[in-house]
Amino acid sequence: MMKQRTSRRRRSRSTVRIAAVAALVLATSVLSAAFAPASAQADPHAPTPILLNDFEASTGWELYPTGGASASFAIDGSAAVSGSSAGRLDLTVPSGTVELSSNVTHTNAAAVQFSVLSENIDTVAVRLVDSTGQLHQQQVALDPEATGWQTITIADFTSGPGYVHWDGANDGVWHGPLTRIGFVVDKWGTLTGSTTGSLKIDALTAYRPAVTSGSILFVGNSFTHGNEEPVFSYNNAAVSDRNGGGAGGIPGIFKKMTDQAGLSFDVDIEAASGQTLGWHYSTRPTVIGEPWTAVVLQEQSTLPLPTAHGGNPTSFATSVGNLRSLVQSGNADAEIYLYETWASPTSVTEQSYPAGVAGLQAMQADLRTAYLANSGAGGAASVSPVGDAFLRAVDDGVADGLPSDGITAGMVNLWSTADLRHPSRWGGYLSAAVMFARITQLDPRTLPTGTGSAAADLEISAPIAAELNRIAYETTTDFTG
Known about the structure:
globular, alpha/beta, 18 strands, Jelly Rolls, Rossmann fold, six-stranded antiparallel beta sheet
């Protein structure tokens, strides 16, 4: 039930509404400036958004009406801010409360933002649940005169109008990550004289704080170190190859990007051609168990696939769990990223998928499912969706999905011409740009593309580099995992 109603309800509803709307306008203008869309931000170190839910499906959302209240929740395609639909909550609250809530992908959020379209509702309580199970609740005033979407940003989880906390640590301190979010309405949240109302919700987004320094280890195989020049040895003087092979690879490109962004990362690579994460766990525990700030784990490219396509998802899951424990034995707070690999023209044939772009899409869907199944609290902290970025580049017409019959003018080949499997210079650059976005939480579209940049070093044209940076941004922003 709603916790501790405040004394403001003893004042006249019109006075309260005027004050609430004034506070909302001020708060929304200030917070929206701080958490504006990344393309409009002047500060390249401002955090980028992570889409938690765009309400294309009702899966995961739960209704809790109490004390005589009733409600229904459905997906509504009549209006949307993100995607093609929004969530619609219809309620009747002559007494009691209605809560709509859902678990979310565990996210180290600095702020939460969402859009609402209300009818007969001028106050909503927002409940945020931290890692201890502590509920942090504050009230949000909505403008009852608004006819369009209102964007709400909550940048402080332990204050705000009517703030209360309970359960879990119950200390009023935020213990990240964010694990669950809820929206609560009672009869006081509806307009005077009404006990019914509706609320559309869309574009539920989290902003993770920017990460500007740390020590990072990349663990993987030739999809990490690259299989040919100029990727393999790129920027190898700036990274430490813990296997002594002189590799720079995707970590070397990532390091160059972070340096150009004015960040300070120590980057190490522990990659061996053809090997699985299980092999790294068995043979490189000393290196992996060092106190890293973050570790990136890249599995052998086909192992996560279903057994019907030659994979072994059980082995993949076991290795992720073992490595997670090993990494956290060195630093309990280390971030762990799963490097989602890509479908390729060669692999779709060898793993019995349809030929062409349809095969790329089908194989990538299986890879995505496997990586997401091992993310979150039970596996790694986050998936770095490199494979999804490869597929988006094909779908957007930036990369040729059928390079074996020649590269279409104006497009690039993300895969090595030698085997149509390993990353080319364009594929390596896109992989690093996705890593940059995911690990630093910064906008890769701010990366330089001219003389002296990683793109120029790799002989990637500025227009193509800008497109690859855009794809990295859009993929990481849209990806929920």
